[in-house]
Amino acid sequence: MRILLPTDLAPISAPAIEYAGELAARLGASVHVLHILDHLLAPTVAWATPAAAAVDLRARLYADARRAVHGVAAGLGASGLTVQEEVCAGNPAAEILRAACETHSDLIVMATHGRSGLARLVLGSTAEHVVKHSPCPVITLSEPVGSALAAGGEPYEARARGVSA
Question: What's the predicted TM-score (pTM) here?
Fold first, then answer.
C-alpha cells in the first residue's frame, strides 16, 4: 500500500504528517512525501528581481524545501517506514493528482486550511479539488488528532474531515 502525503510544511500540516505515519505503520504502507512550490510564486520572484537573482532565489527555495521535506521523511523513516521524497513546482492540486497517479497511491492524507469566504474564492481550495478529482480515497485533516490510531480510535469517522472513494 502507498500513502501520498502532500504537505505545504506549515504547522497546520503536522497532524496530517503524524496521522499518515501512524496509518502507514499500522498498514505496513510506504509514504510518499510531496511538497509543491506554488507556480504562482515563481513568476512573482522572476518579475521582482533581476534574472540572476531570481534564479539564485529559486534555487534556494528548492534547496530549503528539499531540506524540510527530508526532515519530514527522516522523522517518518525513523519509525521504520519506507519513505520517498519529492519537491516540485506547479499548481498544488494538479501536482497532487499527478503524483497520486504516477506513484499508484492507494490513499492521500493531507491537511486542509479550512478557508472560507473571500480567501477561499481568491485562493481556491486545493483539498476540495483533490477530493473531487482524486483517483484514490482522500483523508483531509484540519486539526490535531493526537494518536488516534495508537489509542484505538476510529480514524475515518471521528478524525477525518473527508474521505472520497
Answer: 0.78
